[in-house]
Amino acid sequence: LLSAMVGFSFSKRFELPGFGDPRYFIPSIPFLLVLGTAMMALSYFLFDRYFFEISPLSYPKEVLYLISLPFKGAFSEEIILRLCLVTLSVGLLKSKGAGVVLVSTLASLFTIKYFHFFGIEFGFNYLFITQVLLSFSANLFLGYIFVTRGLLYSMSLKFLFGIKYVIVSWAMG
User: Fold this and answer.
1) In sequence order, which ranges of 11-150 are alpha helices (DSSP H)?
2) Using one digit for the tens of pLDDT, what is the confidence trace for 128-168?
């Protein structure tokens, strides 16, 4: 709630679209579906199919939890990372691009800490490099979408990207 208040309070001041314009959202749905599918496929082929072998529990079997993952990412992560942190970073750095890069870097570092927290250690290898690069790239792209189109668009892409957990769990589990 605090993240949403901060983001909505400062987005206009820093010339950000905030929530975004719903009038333009409906016509963009086919394009967002293509982008979301491309993000899922890229993540699966570069990372998830290998990571599943190391940590199958990262792809839950519990149906309700599995279904909730795309919603969790779309709502909580986008509100915290994009609406709050990107908005604040843009204001502090006086640059949309620099704000997006800063938050993308932080999110990538959070990914590394996530693996350590859950005891997943795979050293400096293909999976580590791929995960850091994918995390940074996805966050950079979602941040760009947020600063150009708004939260509604980045939330939609994050939701579509989150469906990968459902697909990977179903296909490989």
Assistant:
1) 22-43, 49-54, 63-72, 87-93, 96-117, 126-148
2) 899 899 999 999 999 999 999 999 999 999 999 999 989 98
**Residues ≥6 apart with Cβ < 8 Å to 110:** none
User: Which contacts of 169-172 are long-range, i.e. CB under 8 A and separated by 24 or more positions?
Assistant: 169/59, 169/60, 169/61, 169/66, 172/49, 172/52, 172/56, 172/59
What token pair was written down for 127?
């999976």
Cα 147 to Cα 82: distance, rounded to the nearest angstrom: 8
Reference 140, options 76, 73, 54, 82; nearest CA is: 82
Amino acid at site 156: S
